Each structure stands twice: as C-alpha cells, then as structure tokens.
Amino acid sequence: AQSVTQLDSHVSVSEGTPVLLRCNYSSSYSPSLFWYVQHPNKGLQLLLKYTSAATLVKGINGFEAEFKKSETSFHLTKPSAHMSDAAEYFCVVSDQGGFKTIFGAGTRLFVKA
Amino acid sequence: DARVTQTPRHKVTEMGQEVTMRCQPILGHNTVFWYRQTMMQGLELLAYFRNRAPLDDSGMPKDRFSAEMPDATLATLKIQPSEPRDSAVYFCASAPSTDTQYFGPGTRLTVL
After folding, report:
1. What is the pLDDT of residues A3-46, one digit of tens each?
2. Inter-chain contact A106–B43, Cβ cutoff 8 Å?
3. In angstroms, rounded to a whole number, what is the distance separating the alpha carbons of residues B77 and B68?
4. I want to staple B101 with a disulfide (CB 3.0 to 4.6 A). Which of A46, A61, A88, B93 is the partner?
5. A108: contact with B, CB 8 A cutoff
6. pLDDT value of position A98
7. Rg of the Cα trace of chain A?
8. What DSSP string runs through B37-51?
C-alpha cells in the first residue's frame, strides 16, 4: 500500500530565504514521486518528478527535490524564496504504471516581504 | 501549448438538480482522472479511465455520481441529484502513457 505524509500544513518564510517542504512516503515497490504546486483558484501544475533516474531532481522555478530511499523522503527545496512562490504544494506518490495516485494533504507556503 | 480544458469553470445550482461537468484531455493522452477538492478532505481521486475504459471508480459515490468517456476527446462527470455536500472544486487531469498528470483549471461547484 502507498501513502504520503506532508509533515507541515503551513510553512512561512521571508523572501530571499531558503524553502524546505517536507514529504515522507510509503510504498511497497519503487514509486514515482511528484511535487505539484497550486496557486489560488488555479489548477495543479507539475513542479518536478522522480522516477529512479537520478536522486536529485530539478524542477521549474528553481525548485528541486532529493529522493532518499533510506529515509523514505522526498523533500522539496528552493535556495531563495520569491513572493510568487506563495501557494499550496502537494507531494504525490504513484505506482509506476500511473494507475494509483495518492496526494498528500498539502503544505501552504507563505512568503513574507 | 496543449492544456486540459474543463467546462463550466463555475456552476451554482440548487439541491436536487443534475450537474454535468466536462473535460477535454490533452490530445494523445490515454488516461483521464477526475478529482474532487474540498477544504475538509483535500484532493480525492474519484475515478480514472485508460483508453476510455473505466479502471477505478471506487472513490465515487455510486448512487449519484457517474463518469463516462463518450470519445477520446471528452470525459464527463455527472451528479444526479446534486446535494450541498457535493460543493467542491472538481479537477480533471490527463496523462500520456507515462504517469505524469496534467491538470485542468477545475470546475467550482456550489450546490445550494
């Protein structure tokens, strides 16, 4: 069975400081892992995807995530937050066939000026 | 720039009325998903199709919800009769043969 846990429901950072959004997953096989972002009143947009090719995955808008199998984690980071990064972020685990997809509860990122 | 489109974007209706939401997946994508998003429950997978065949609709209340793909360019989600607890944002997503999903902008449904 698969599951995904986003460890923080809200994260607040100042503009220009690093962002860390935490995600732990559980899967009985090699999963695909994703981060999606949702801006207010918008659909979800893919930030990045891990599918076992490389443990450090680079995404759009300067975000990246590192797959750590020993820790069953897939945390999302960005070196320097921008005001436009304020949104909700979802960590997602999927079987590699894409049939079963589990979304985390989401982490809302606030960016202070 | 190919995108998933959904209509209507907003729908307000009264309890008991039928609601139909439509989704046009990205051309060439063979998998279509329907999700519901609420503040209380977050994102819930309702159903998904591959090559127009329903693969899993276990997340969908069977008594009032139905999902179909009349053809490869159209997926529909119908609620009959609608209830206030159905108020939510409904997202459609499509995927090619890989597992990356591309989401539409959603339909915001309000049932009074």
Report:
1. 899 999 999 999 999 999 999 999 877 788 999 999 988 889 99
2. yes
3. 7
4. B93
5. no
6. 57
7. 13
8. EETTTEEEEEEEEET
Distances (CA, A) of A86 to A24, B73, B89: 22, 34, 20
Residues of B in Cβ contact (< 8 Å) with A95: 99
Interchain contact B48–A (C-beta under 8 A)? yes
Mean pLDDT of B49-60: 87
Q: How many helices (H) and strands (E) does chain B have?
A: 0, 11
Helix (H, G, I), strand (E, B) or coil at A86: coil
CB nearest A98 (choices: B43, B95, B103) = B95
> Which residues does residue A66 pair with via DSSP β-bridges, in sequence order?
A56, A75
Candidate from B45, B100, B106 with C-beta closest to A49: B100
- Residue A50 contacts B, CB cutoff 8 Å: no
Tokens of B72: 């490869």
The mean of the pLDDT values for chain B is 92
Q: Phi and psi of A85, rounded to 5°?
A: -80, -10
Q: Which residues contact B28 (CB under 8 A, 6 or more apart)?
A: B96
